[in-house]
Amino acid sequence: MQDIDDDRDTAPLDKLTEPLGLRLVYMLIIGVMLSFAQSVLVLLAVIQFVIILIDNRQPNARLADLGCMVGAWVAKAARYMVGATDAKPWPFREMD
Q1: pTM summary value
Q2: Inter-axis angle of helices 61-81 and 20-54, to 10 degrees?
Q3: Of 10, 55, 89, 94, which is the most exposed, with the fewest CB atoms less than 10 Å away?
């Protein structure tokens, strides 16, 4: 899976542009989503380990791709949460 970021995700910010109250609401929503994403990653890791154990050390490629996608989302959410970008992650914009 390839993670493609546009300039809005990586460009350093001089000043945040959205109202702080609205940003707080988005941060709370994304914080809950981050907690859920962490649970999903742990579940995927456990399932992948069982698959590797059963299938002669062969990981499931689709499961690995899903884990990478969740990890990329977590990184984008973290950049928004710490104020490194104004670009909100999915579901507030398209998933890359």
Answers
A1: 0.80
A2: 160
A3: 94
